[in-house]
Design a protein that fits this description.
single chain; 566 residues; alpha+beta; Thrombin, subunit H; seven-stranded antiparallel sheet; five-stranded antiparallel sheet; 23 helices; 14 strands; 50% helix; globular; disordered N terminus
């Protein structure tokens, strides 16, 4: 599992001989490596092919039976090397492809469609939208929502049978029937459906044999409920729960003396994943010197659990096996990998993303990392990992906003390109030369306001409230029609105890965005601190009417209840 792999789908090294029929003549050929969407070949002699030629591939050893387009060629006196891209759907056999690699490849490809997996009479489907898994389906009775709820004792047999009668009579989904019959609350149904979808995907890791095929295209909107599902999280859980331990042993036995390292690629390193205690312990031992054999001695968990955990983490690509020559991670500690991103105040996170999205091109390669043009490579590298973690595409799994993924992808792509350029001496010299030739242009008030607000957010996050207040005030002055500038000015004033000024600032934000529940809730907390309990109560109630789960408003109501009982 090399971390040098930059293609979407992982390549597997395999030398398989086969015959290639070209123009009525048979040529001996051999695979060098293959993936779900491509193959690298050696063809004997000088076959009549060029870039763009379509070849029929029938390679028994790797179950490749499809057409491939030649995308590159390298000819010699005795043979021809060729790289082919499959022209049809992504498909293959689970005996020759790891499911984790297929799911990760689809995610990295950012494509929409349906992955079908068939094993005997079993047919299960995974739906992806822009690469992310969002839904699943199965033809197995054990995977039905009602069966899962019954098995996990969320409903009883009588309730189950009653719901089946209703769905047979009305054609409604079983979940809908359970809610209408009063056996589940609407919120419980949402959690139950997500659990069902996850369980179907996790069960796929228990399949030892089968075929898969991904059909790209629009999703059937009448069948699909869009959920947010992390590929790394489900891969880790699926392998831990369902993967064959013998498969893990067979793979790891040959690597016992190999050193485990963190992936140097932030796209792998900072994925959204919930780690169990075994994984946290394994990650804590990764120093760049610890082998798998060492892990077995150090771990307080048994060998079975330890090996399965290492195997699962390798499949998520968060860790890798050292090849002895890859670039090390810049001062990344296990704690930074284990620690989840802080999304306790979602609006603050969203605002940081929006601010970076609006300013990264203007900031340029040095500015996006917050370093000077003379910064040393180690300083740039450290800044790269910090920014890549904060704006990792998987951050959108933690937030309600639906349009953040594209913005996070744009930011992440830019910072990756920035690091690639600045870490290469020649590319960096060329970039610096371009910078020196750029003419100075006039900066508008709007751009300057965005810049001041971004600086303010950095100070606010660092708890430097006095400087944050000044910068937010400048942003609001320069562009006073942006609600969040006034809101954060008021939020900072509130934290500094300047309550009357805070209330006025938040009211200015509400004049611009009167339905913003975050702003209304903050006004309620200011009223609470000012001693206006009746006004605070009616404000929190107004928020909860619009958004029943609003955390800040619920905290305010709890404070009022405690005050009343005290």
């Amino acid at each position: 599992m090399t971390n040098k792999e930059k293609r979407h789908f992982r390549r597997y090294k395999k030398h398989s001989k086969f015959s290639l029929l070209l123009g009525g003549k048979s040529f001996g050929a051999e695979t060098v490596d293959y993936s779900a969407d491509g193959v690298n070949l050696i063809i004997e002699d000088s076959p009549p092919i060029a870039e763009g030629t379509i070849l029929d591939l029938n390679i028994k050893d790797t179950a490749i039976h499809t057409k491939g387009k030649v995308v590159w060629l390298k000819k010699s006196k005795t043979h021809t090397r060729a790289g082919l891209k499959m022209t049809g759907p992504v498909k293959g056999s689970l005996r020759h492809h790891m499911l984790a690699d297929i799911l990760m490849g689809l995610q990295r490809s950012k494509i929409t469609g349906i992955l079908g997996i068939k094993s005997g009479s079993i047919l299960k489907k995974v739906y992806t939208k822009d690469g992310d898994m969002i839904f699943s389906a199965s033809n197995q009775e054990a995977d039905r929502l009602g069966d899962i709820l019954l098995r996990e004792k969320k409903i009883n047999l009588e309730q189950y049978n009653h719901s089946v009668e209703v769905l047979k009579k009305t054609g409604k989904r079983q979940g809908t029937a359970l809610v209408e019959l009063g056996y589940l609350r609407p919120q419980e149904l949402i959690h139950a459906v997500k659990h069902q979808v996850e369980e179907i995907i996790i069960s796929l890791f228990g399949l030892e044999d089968g075929i898969f095929e991904f059909n790209e295209g629009p999703l059937p909107t009448d069948e699909v409920i869009i959920l947010k599902l992390s590929a790394a999280n489900l891969i880790y859980r699926g392998i831990k729960i369902n993967s064959d331990i013998q498969k893990a042993k067979d793979y790891l036995n040959a690597l016992m003396d190999a050193t485990l390292v963190f992936s140097p690629d932030p796209l792998n390193l900072f994925q959204s994943i919930t780690l169990d205690e075994t994984a946290k312990e394994i990650l804590s031992y990764i120093t760049g010197k610890t082998s798998i054999k060492d892990m077995l001695l150090l771990s307080r968990f048994n060998a079975f659990e330890t090996l399965k955990t290492i195997y699962a983490l390798l499949n998520t690509r968060i860790i890798d096996v050292s090849e002895g020559k890859e670039e090390g991670v810049a001062e990344i500690s296990p704690e930074e990998i284990i620690e989840k991103p802080d999304v306790s105040v979602p609006q603050e996170v969203i605002d940081r993303i929006e601010n970076m999205y609006n300013s990264y091109e203007r900031l340029g390669y040095y500015g996006v990392f917050g370093v000077k043009e003379w910064a040393a490579h180690d300083e740039i590298k450290k800044a790269y990992y910090k920014v890549a973690k904060e704006f990792h595409p998987d951050m959108h799994f933690n937030l309600e906003s639906d349009d953040l993924k594209a913005k996070l992808n744009a930011i992440f792509s830019f910072v990756t390109q920035a690091y690639t350029t600045l870490s290469d001496p020649e590319k960096r010299r060329q970039y610096d030369k371009q910078l020196s030739h750029k003419s100075v242009r006039t900066v508008s008030n709007e751009e300057l306001a965005r810049e001041k607000f971004g600086e303010g957010m950095n100070k606010f996050t660092a708890r430097n409230l006095t400087q944050a207040l000044e910068l937010f005030g400048q942003a609001a002055y320069l562009h006073n029609s942006i609600a969040k500038y006034h809101y954060y000015y008021g939020l900072t004033l509130n934290k500094l105890g300047r309550l009357k000024e805070a209330e006025k600032a938040v009211q200015r934000a509400l004049k611009i965005e009167p339905a913003n529940t975050d702003y209304i809730a903050e006004a309620g907390h200011i009223y609470l601190r000012l001693g206006f309990q009746g006004r605070a109560k009616s404000t929190f109630e107004a928020v909860l009417k619009l958004s029943p789960a609003h955390q800040r408003a619920r905290e305010g109501m709890m404070s009022l209840e405690k005050s009343a009982s005290g």
